[in-house]
């Protein structure tokens, strides 16, 4: 497995299959690339099926053992089943989706080899859901969750971005996953830099504190050093060891799992980051939050992919605490990287700054996600 200078091995890749979407969520960072609005028809610049598969075959040679397909809305592409089917067997295959296209496709995706799915669901309230997603597809998402469960994808992780509009729904969502076997919840710290509206952000530590009071059991996940809280349904007094099944793991019929994704507030999140990303246009990206290190893979021949992947890994840097540091409460680019990030040579062949990318515009870094 390749490792960067900070000792972080790269075990996973996240492939953005498209930047198109049928939703227009008010907070969307589009995996760090900005706006998803625009025509929904397939576009020429998206990586083709064969390119995606060839990329996966090459990184599998380096011991990469998991791939997540994301976007935009990945299921707008009709070749997801084919891509999943042709993904090397040794890789765990997962998908992050808004869920609307899972009814009618969940089974074919599972048949093709899909092992896990994360579905974005920010509230159980129809009106709030509509305001947040700027789409009225609440029922389609709920049907999507059911379709995933029926197709055997349990546990299904619900992704909820916690910000001003949704924070009040956290207790209800936590009870929802505690009471419904087969569901997990992921509470994602809102990242305002790409989407704007810093005033929407809330203090994620308050959510940790509240969950710590509710939880019957707490664990840490190695990836990103994320905290996982196991919460029992209302009325249950099960605790700690009572929750474990015969195999020693928490029995999900007795408690629901709530994981917090807090890249900014958690000082050991980036130090435990083991993922490299690929944009829908086929550029490697060492960090979700950076667009100044996009690296093309030439004509995507195997030697070119190998070389670009090696270089991307070699140049990876933990974002929070290393690439940006906190000065007077603001994240600013570390002086050691100023040349590389702001005025350094753009990667040859990388997309121009035409609104599709978000390089830090000054010394305050762009903070996005995936
Ligand atoms: N800054 C940052 N945010 C991340 C990272 N990974 C996930 N996130 C945030 O969490 C959101 C949801 O992530 P998912 O795409 O569902 O994947 P995940 O939860 O990381 O992956 P699994 O738990 O392995 O399924 C992303 O869109 C980001 O907002 C990361 O490496 N860096
Ligand atoms: C960009 S979407 C792509 C996949 C798919 N369209 C979906 O919504 O699941 C991936 C994840 O990013 C999360 N996300 C988007 N913008 C965000 C932001 N500004 N802060 C934190 N998470 C965000 C979404 O909630 C979603 O779970
Ligand atoms: S569904 Fe996903 S990609 Fe689409 S706007 Fe919402 S967060 Fe962004
Ligand atoms: S911000 Fe960058 S370095 Fe930190 S966890 Fe996310 S992708 Fe990894």
Automatic annotation (TrEMBL):
It catalyses: GTP + AH2 + S-adenosyl-L-methionine = (8S)-3',8-cyclo-7,8-dihydroguanosine 5'-triphosphate + 5'-deoxyadenosine + L-methionine + A + H(+). Transmembrane segments: none annotated. CDD domains: Radical_SAM (cd01335). The keyword 4Fe-4S applies. Keywords: 4Fe-4S, GTP-binding, Iron, Iron-sulfur, Lyase, Metal-binding, Molybdenum cofactor biosynthesis, Nucleotide-binding, S-adenosyl-L-methionine. One of its GO terms (molecular function) is S-adenosyl-L-methionine binding. Pfam families: Mob_synth_C, Radical_SAM. [4Fe-4S] cluster 1 binds at residues 21, 25, 28. Pathway: Cofactor biosynthesis; molybdopterin biosynthesis. GTP binds at residues 14, 68, 96, 157, 275-277. S-adenosyl-L-methionine binds at residues 27, 72, 120. One of its GO terms (biological process) is Mo-molybdopterin cofactor biosynthetic process. Its cofactor is [4Fe-4S] cluster. This is Probable GTP 3',8-cyclase. The gene is moaA.
């Amino acid at each position: 497995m390749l490792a960067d200078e900070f000792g972080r091995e790269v075990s996973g890749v996240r492939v953005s299959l498209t930047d198109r979407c049928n939703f227009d969520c008010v907070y969307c960072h589009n995996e760090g690339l900005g706006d998803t609005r625009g025509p929904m028809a397939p576009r020429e610049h998206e990586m083709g099926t064969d390119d995606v598969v060839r990329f996966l075959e090459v990184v599998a040679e380096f011991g990469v053992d998991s791939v997540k397909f994301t976007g935009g809305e990945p299921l707008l592409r009709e070749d997801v089943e084919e891509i999943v089917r042709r993904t090397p067997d040794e890789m765990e295959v997962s998908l992050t989706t808004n869920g609307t296209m899972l009814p009618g496709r969940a089974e074919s995706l599972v048949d093709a080899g899909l092992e896990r799915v994360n579905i974005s669901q920010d509230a159980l309230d129809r009106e709030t859901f509509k305001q947040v997603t700027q789409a009225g597809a609440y029922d389609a998402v709920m049907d999507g969750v059911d379709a995933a469960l029926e197709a055997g994808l349990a546990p299904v992780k619900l992704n909820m971005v916690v910000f001003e509009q949704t924070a009040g729904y956290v207790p209800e969502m936590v009870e929802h996953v505690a009471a419904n076997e087969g569901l997990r919840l992921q509470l994602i710290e809102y990242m305002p830099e790409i989407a704007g509206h810093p005033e929407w952000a809330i203090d994620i530590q308050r959510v940790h504190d509240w969950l710590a009071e509710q939880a019957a059991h707490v664990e840490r996940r190695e990836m990103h050093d994320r905290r996982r809280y196991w919460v029992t349904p209302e009325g249950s007094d099960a605790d700690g060891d009572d929750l474990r099944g015969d195999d020693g793991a928490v029995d999900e019929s007795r408690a629901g799992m709530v994981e917090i994704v807090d890249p900014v507030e958690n000082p050991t999140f980036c130090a435990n980051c083991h993922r490299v990303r690929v944009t829908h246009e086929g550029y490697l990206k060492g960090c979700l939050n950076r667009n100044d290190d996009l690296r093309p893979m030439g004509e995507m021949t195997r030697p070119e992919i190998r070389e670009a992947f090696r270089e991307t890994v070699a140049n990876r840097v933990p974002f929070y605490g290393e690439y940006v540091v906190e000065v007077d409460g603001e994240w600013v680019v570390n002086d050691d990287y100023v040349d590389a990030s702001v005025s350094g040579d753009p990667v040859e062949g990388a997309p121009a700054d035409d609104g599709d990318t978000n390089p830090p515009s000054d010394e305050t870094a762009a903070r996005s996600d995936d």
